[in-house]
Amino acid sequence: MLELKGIFKYYSNKFVKTYVLSDVDFSVNKGEFVTVMGPSGAGKSTLLYILGMLDTFEEGEYYYYENPVHSFKEKQRTNLHKHEIGFVFQQYHLIDELTVYENIEMPLLYQKIKGSERKGMVCDMLDKFNIVGKKNLFPNQLSGGQQQLVGIARAIIAKPSLILADEPTGNLNSEQGKAIMELFKKLNEEGTTIVQVTHSEKKAAYGNRIVNLLDGRVV
Protein backbone atom coordinates (compact mmCIF):
# COMPACT_ATOMS: atom_id res chain seq x y z
CA MET A 1 0.00 0.00 0.00
CA LEU A 2 2.78 2.41 1.00
CA GLU A 3 6.42 2.26 0.03
CA LEU A 4 9.23 4.70 0.72
CA LYS A 5 12.55 4.09 -1.04
CA GLY A 6 15.79 5.81 -0.07
CA ILE A 7 14.14 8.83 1.56
CA PHE A 8 16.40 11.70 2.61
CA LYS A 9 15.01 14.75 4.41
CA TYR A 10 17.37 17.53 5.43
CA TYR A 11 17.61 21.22 6.11
CA SER A 12 20.60 23.11 4.76
CA ASN A 13 22.30 26.44 5.08
CA LYS A 14 25.37 27.58 3.14
CA PHE A 15 27.75 25.39 5.08
CA VAL A 16 25.99 22.32 6.47
CA LYS A 17 23.11 19.90 5.90
CA THR A 18 21.17 18.75 8.94
CA TYR A 19 19.60 15.37 8.20
CA VAL A 20 16.22 14.49 9.70
CA LEU A 21 15.81 11.24 7.72
CA SER A 22 18.67 9.36 6.05
CA ASP A 23 18.17 6.66 3.40
CA VAL A 24 14.88 5.42 4.86
CA ASP A 25 13.20 2.40 3.30
CA PHE A 26 9.74 1.80 4.77
CA SER A 27 6.71 -0.12 3.54
CA VAL A 28 3.25 -0.86 4.90
CA ASN A 29 0.88 -3.50 3.58
CA LYS A 30 -2.85 -2.88 3.34
CA GLY A 31 -4.55 -3.82 6.61
CA GLU A 32 -1.43 -3.57 8.78
CA PHE A 33 -1.22 -1.72 12.10
CA VAL A 34 2.37 -0.49 12.28
CA THR A 35 3.98 1.35 15.19
CA VAL A 36 6.98 3.64 14.71
CA MET A 37 9.12 4.01 17.83
CA GLY A 38 12.35 5.74 18.76
CA PRO A 39 13.77 8.51 20.96
CA SER A 40 12.85 12.18 20.60
CA GLY A 41 14.51 13.67 17.53
CA ALA A 42 14.70 10.33 15.71
CA GLY A 43 12.52 11.62 12.82
CA LYS A 44 9.29 9.78 13.69
CA SER A 45 6.89 12.71 13.20
CA THR A 46 8.69 13.80 10.02
CA LEU A 47 8.26 10.29 8.62
CA LEU A 48 4.55 10.40 9.44
CA TYR A 49 4.14 13.83 7.80
CA ILE A 50 5.83 12.54 4.64
CA LEU A 51 3.53 9.50 4.59
CA GLY A 52 0.57 11.87 5.00
CA MET A 53 1.78 14.02 2.10
CA LEU A 54 2.00 17.02 4.43
CA ASP A 55 5.78 17.33 4.09
CA THR A 56 8.22 16.87 1.22
CA PHE A 57 11.64 15.24 0.99
CA GLU A 58 14.85 15.98 -0.87
CA GLU A 59 15.70 12.54 -2.26
CA GLY A 60 13.93 9.22 -2.71
CA GLU A 61 10.64 7.79 -3.95
CA TYR A 62 7.20 7.39 -2.38
CA TYR A 63 4.59 5.04 -3.82
CA TYR A 64 0.97 4.94 -2.64
CA TYR A 65 -0.78 1.92 -4.20
CA GLU A 66 2.05 2.02 -6.76
CA ASN A 67 1.26 5.65 -7.64
CA PRO A 68 4.47 7.74 -7.64
CA VAL A 69 3.63 10.41 -5.05
CA HIS A 70 7.14 11.89 -5.49
CA SER A 71 6.13 12.85 -9.05
CA PHE A 72 2.75 14.34 -8.10
CA LYS A 73 1.96 18.02 -8.27
CA GLU A 74 0.89 19.60 -4.97
CA LYS A 75 -2.80 19.56 -5.93
CA GLN A 76 -2.65 15.81 -6.64
CA ARG A 77 -1.03 15.15 -3.27
CA THR A 78 -3.62 17.32 -1.50
CA ASN A 79 -6.52 15.50 -3.16
CA LEU A 80 -5.09 12.09 -2.27
CA HIS A 81 -4.58 13.19 1.33
CA LYS A 82 -8.14 14.54 1.63
CA HIS A 83 -9.80 11.43 0.25
CA GLU A 84 -7.61 8.61 1.57
CA ILE A 85 -5.89 9.67 4.79
CA GLY A 86 -6.99 10.55 8.31
CA PHE A 87 -4.27 12.29 10.34
CA VAL A 88 -4.22 12.55 14.13
CA PHE A 89 -1.81 15.35 15.03
CA GLN A 90 0.16 15.52 18.27
CA GLN A 91 -0.69 19.25 18.52
CA TYR A 92 -4.36 18.76 17.45
CA HIS A 93 -4.32 21.33 14.57
CA LEU A 94 -7.98 22.14 15.08
CA ILE A 95 -9.27 25.25 13.32
CA ASP A 96 -9.69 27.92 16.00
CA GLU A 97 -12.53 29.76 14.24
CA LEU A 98 -14.67 26.61 13.91
CA THR A 99 -16.74 24.91 16.57
CA VAL A 100 -16.19 21.30 17.62
CA TYR A 101 -19.07 20.28 15.34
CA GLU A 102 -17.60 22.19 12.38
CA ASN A 103 -14.07 20.85 12.94
CA ILE A 104 -15.32 17.27 12.90
CA GLU A 105 -17.49 17.95 9.84
CA MET A 106 -14.62 19.39 7.77
CA PRO A 107 -13.44 16.15 6.04
CA LEU A 108 -17.01 15.43 4.92
CA LEU A 109 -17.23 18.84 3.21
CA TYR A 110 -14.07 18.02 1.24
CA GLN A 111 -15.75 14.83 0.05
CA LYS A 112 -18.98 16.68 -0.84
CA ILE A 113 -21.18 14.43 1.34
CA LYS A 114 -24.80 15.65 1.50
CA GLY A 115 -25.95 17.75 4.44
CA SER A 116 -28.35 15.27 6.04
CA GLU A 117 -25.80 12.46 5.84
CA ARG A 118 -23.08 14.74 7.22
CA LYS A 119 -25.25 15.65 10.20
CA GLY A 120 -25.85 12.00 11.06
CA MET A 121 -22.15 11.14 10.78
CA VAL A 122 -21.06 14.07 12.95
CA CYS A 123 -23.67 13.30 15.58
CA ASP A 124 -22.46 9.70 15.64
CA MET A 125 -18.88 10.89 16.29
CA LEU A 126 -19.97 13.32 19.01
CA ASP A 127 -21.81 10.49 20.71
CA LYS A 128 -18.98 7.95 20.25
CA PHE A 129 -16.45 10.31 21.88
CA ASN A 130 -18.87 11.54 24.55
CA ILE A 131 -18.52 15.20 23.51
CA VAL A 132 -22.12 16.02 22.50
CA GLY A 133 -22.19 18.77 25.13
CA LYS A 134 -19.09 20.39 23.60
CA LYS A 135 -20.32 20.59 20.00
CA ASN A 136 -20.85 24.38 19.97
CA LEU A 137 -17.62 25.24 21.79
CA PHE A 138 -14.43 26.46 20.12
CA PRO A 139 -11.06 24.73 20.52
CA ASN A 140 -9.73 27.33 23.00
CA GLN A 141 -12.66 26.47 25.30
CA LEU A 142 -11.60 22.82 25.51
CA SER A 143 -9.01 21.00 27.59
CA GLY A 144 -6.05 19.35 25.84
CA GLY A 145 -7.67 15.94 26.19
CA GLN A 146 -10.95 17.17 24.71
CA GLN A 147 -9.12 18.73 21.76
CA GLN A 148 -7.35 15.41 21.21
CA LEU A 149 -10.70 13.59 21.08
CA VAL A 150 -12.04 16.10 18.54
CA GLY A 151 -8.89 15.62 16.45
CA ILE A 152 -9.32 11.83 16.47
CA ALA A 153 -13.03 12.11 15.61
CA ARG A 154 -12.14 14.39 12.67
CA ALA A 155 -9.48 11.93 11.47
CA ILE A 156 -11.75 8.89 11.34
CA ILE A 157 -15.16 10.34 10.41
CA ALA A 158 -14.74 9.96 6.64
CA LYS A 159 -13.64 6.32 7.00
CA PRO A 160 -10.17 6.83 5.47
CA SER A 161 -8.20 3.92 4.02
CA LEU A 162 -5.18 4.99 6.09
CA ILE A 163 -4.96 6.52 9.56
CA LEU A 164 -1.70 8.19 10.58
CA ALA A 165 -1.55 8.94 14.30
CA ASP A 166 1.20 10.96 16.01
CA GLU A 167 1.13 10.14 19.75
CA PRO A 168 -2.68 9.79 19.49
CA THR A 169 -3.29 9.31 23.21
CA GLY A 170 -0.57 11.61 24.56
CA ASN A 171 -2.99 14.08 26.17
CA LEU A 172 -5.64 11.61 27.32
CA ASN A 173 -6.07 9.99 30.69
CA SER A 174 -5.40 6.26 30.91
CA GLU A 175 -9.06 5.28 30.53
CA GLN A 176 -9.59 7.50 27.48
CA GLY A 177 -6.27 6.33 26.02
CA LYS A 178 -7.26 2.69 26.34
CA ALA A 179 -10.65 3.39 24.71
CA ILE A 180 -8.97 5.12 21.74
CA MET A 181 -6.49 2.27 21.26
CA GLU A 182 -9.35 -0.25 21.36
CA LEU A 183 -11.15 1.86 18.74
CA PHE A 184 -8.06 1.88 16.51
CA LYS A 185 -7.73 -1.87 16.92
CA LYS A 186 -11.38 -2.35 15.89
CA LEU A 187 -10.96 -0.07 12.85
CA ASN A 188 -7.87 -2.05 11.88
CA GLU A 189 -9.75 -5.34 12.20
CA GLU A 190 -12.39 -3.86 9.87
CA GLY A 191 -9.70 -3.17 7.25
CA THR A 192 -8.28 0.30 7.99
CA THR A 193 -4.50 0.51 7.70
CA ILE A 194 -2.91 2.35 10.64
CA VAL A 195 0.55 3.78 11.26
CA GLN A 196 1.07 5.26 14.72
CA VAL A 197 3.98 6.98 16.43
CA THR A 198 4.26 6.33 20.16
CA HIS A 199 6.78 6.09 22.97
CA SER A 200 4.58 3.59 24.80
CA GLU A 201 5.32 -0.15 24.59
CA LYS A 202 1.77 -0.72 25.85
CA LYS A 203 0.26 1.25 22.97
CA ALA A 204 2.65 -0.39 20.49
CA ALA A 205 1.30 -3.80 21.54
CA TYR A 206 -2.03 -2.96 19.86
CA GLY A 207 -0.30 -3.09 16.46
CA ASN A 208 1.19 -6.06 14.65
CA ARG A 209 4.63 -4.67 13.75
CA ILE A 210 7.14 -2.22 15.24
CA VAL A 211 9.62 -0.15 13.22
CA ASN A 212 12.40 1.55 15.20
CA LEU A 213 13.97 4.85 14.14
CA LEU A 214 17.25 6.18 15.48
CA ASP A 215 18.96 9.36 14.24
CA GLY A 216 16.78 9.42 11.13
CA ARG A 217 17.45 5.82 10.13
CA VAL A 218 15.46 2.60 10.40
CA VAL A 219 17.30 0.25 12.77
Average pLDDT for all residues: 95
If you compute it from the alpha carbons, what radius of gyration comes out, rounded to the nearest whole angstrom? 17 Å
Count of strand segments: 10
Kindly report the name of the CATH homologous superfamily. Answer: P-loop containing nucleotide triphosphate hydrolases
CATH architecture: 3-Layer(aba) Sandwich
CATH class: Alpha Beta
Shape: globular
Distance linking N and C termini = 22 Å
Biggest sheet record: 6 strands, mixed
In total, the number of domains comes to 1
Q: What is the ordering of alpha helices and beta strands?
A: EEEHEEHEHHHEHEHEE
How is the secondary structure organized here?
Layout (H helix, E strand, L loop, with lengths): L1 E11 L4 E12 L4 E5 L6 H8 L7 E6 L2 E2 L5 H11 E4 L11 H11 L4 H14 L15 H13 L5 E5 L7 H16 L3 E5 L3 H4 L4 E6 L2 E2 L1
Parallel strand pairs: 3-8, 3-9, 6-7, 7-8
Antiparallel strand pairs: 1-2, 1-4, 4-5, 9-10
Helix pairs in contact: 3-4, 3-5
